[in-house]
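[Q] Does anyone have a clean structure-token version of this?
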Amino acid sequence: MKVELLRYTPDGEKLIASAAKLCYSPVGIGRIEERLDGESTDKFLDMLMNLGHESTIEHVSFTFGVEGISRVLTHQLVRHRIASYSQQSQRYVKLEQFEYIIPPSIAEDEKAKRLFIEAMEKDQEYYNKITDVLFKKHFNEYMSQGMEEAQARQKSEKQAIEDARYVFPNACETKIVFTMNARTLLNFFKLRCCNRAQWEIRELATEMLKMVKGVYPTLFKNAGPACLKEPCPEGRMTCGKIVEVRNRFDNL
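[A] Here you go.
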């Protein structure tokens, strides 16, 4: 897994403090940043985060680029709807040799790993065969219609891989760029940094949290799974490791 923080709102913590100040101040837009130096900004933002006043943090956004992840992960990721996503298309990109993600539990078991890799190799084999069959079918149809050869080849390949991709597994590696505002990120971390989250998206969420805390530590000082500042909300489904979790994220 490779995770990069591609862009983020500059002077984000000061922007949040300015927006919050406007809500409670009679001054105009031109003066809301007066007396907001580093220390006063941190103090104001610290107060906002402790009180849970999160509407103003929506003004700050972060864009990540991620690769080396599975479609299992991105199927979960896009459920976080207040965000923007751009994912590598299997409809337009022909995968000559697709990469795949092996879950740790499978990688650690020799027999399971061998069977898994065999399945991945068969998927690629069938993808190639289906692509060839469909390409020839569409190509012959377009040529019989009098279409130029170059155009017929282009359209035929696109149609062939559009349907052949159905053979690919959830393990198929993918790449994605996405943007979330700070409030969405707090909710994302609360759900996906939890020990009960699926292992791959938990790994992604934890890496993202490290990055944004490095940029804006005050804004994300309380970020992480829900059990950091309150009792575990999972009830009988709790992982039972609240002390260990709190220690890990306190030292993230």
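[Q] Thanks! Anything notable?
[A] The chain has nine helices and four strands.
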